[in-house]
TrEMBL record:
Principal location: cytoplasm
SUPFAM superfamilies: alpha/beta knot
EC numbers for this chain: 2.1.1.228
Protein name: tRNA (guanine-N(1)-)-methyltransferase
GO biological process, one term: tRNA N1-guanine methylation
Keyword Transferase in record: yes
Compartments reported by the entry: Cytoplasm
Organism: Thioalkalivibrio sulfidiphilus (strain HL-EbGR7)
Top EC class, one word: transferase
Keyword Repeat carried by entry: no
Family: Belongs to the RNA methyltransferase TrmD family.
GO molecular function: tRNA (guanine(37)-N1)-methyltransferase activity
Coiled coil: none
């Protein structure tokens, strides 16, 4: 998969290719990442990429031309046609289904804005989709672009070794994760649930599923709203709730 990012801070975005799953995906050639800086596409002495908003108001707006030229070069860099995504507070809220859809594409161009945003004519001329990563205010689109890159990279074939749990990722199953434990077996008087020490795999799987269902019901009931639990899961959840009451 190829991802091109149009950003004023390529050094920030390129951090994803330096470590972890994303770094390995780039190293293995599974993910091809390139950054394009609009400032390299300015023609004035001050390399101006922003200007004051028509209609007045606080802050600055990113100019069309430098962005347009950067996107043009990004598009030309590969023959594969890209989906052009503007990371924006006005975008649809990203979730795992959206990530899976983006990760299945051969190519993305992600536009990361700064200042108050980008000139609307650029959105009209170049942008296919707008995506937000949540209802909170960031200083720019780069971290959002890096979130998309990370979430997509994990889903690319070969990006995760078998030891990784991408497939069981709670957001893949639509449930929150169960609690996890590792050595020491007792820490400050706190032990590990006996079932996990017994090596009885069916029992362990049952316990983990029950915890996932129970925690989802307790912390994120919205994730259960659109979900019909089968009989086995309903029984596990009832058991979890009964144990809470005890
Ligand atoms: O570029 C991003 N943010 C920079 C940014 C933040 C705030 C404003 C100012 N908005 C004024 C306003 N809001 C409502 C009415 N008027 C403009 C730009 C961004 C990209 S994806 C994403 N996902 C989650 N959060 C984010 O901030 C982002």
């Amino acid at each position: 998969m190829r991802i091109d990012v149009v950003t004023l801070f390529p050094d920030l975005v390129n951090c994803v290719s330096g470590c972890g799953v994303t770094g390995r995906a780039v190293e293995r050639g599974i993910l091809d990442l390139h950054c394009w800086n609009p400032r390299d596409y300015t023609e004035d002495r001050h390399r101006t990429v922003d200007d004051r908003p028509y209609g007045g108001g606080p802050g600055m707006v990113m100019k069309v031309e430098p962005l347009r030229r950067a996107i043009h070069d990004a598009r030309q860099a590969d023959t594969v046609p890209p989906l052009v995504v503007y990371m924006s507070p006005q975008g649809r809220r990203l979730d795992q289904d959206a990530v899976q859809r983006l990760a299945d594409l051969p190519r993305l161009i992600l536009i990361a804005g700064r200042y108050e945003g980008i000139d609307e004519r650029l959105v009209e001329l170049e942008v296919d989709e707008e995506w937000s990563i949540g209802d909170y205010v960031l200083s720019g689109g780069e971290l959002a672009a890096m979130v998309v890159i990370d979430a997509c990279a994990r889903l690319l074939p070969g990006a995760l070794g078998d030891e990784d749990s991408a497939q069981q990722d709670s957001f893949m199953t639509g449930l929150l994760d169960c609690p996890h434990y590792t050595r020491p077996e007792v820490y400050e008087g706190r032990g590990v649930p006996q079932v996990l020490l017994g090596g009885h795999h069916a029992e362990i799987e049952r316990w983990r599923r029950k915890q996932a269902l129970g925690r989802t019901w307790q912390r994120r009931p919205d994730l259960l709203e659109h979900r019909v639990l089968d009989e086995a899961d309903q029984r596990l959840l009832d058991e979890y709730r009964r144990e809470l009451a005890d």
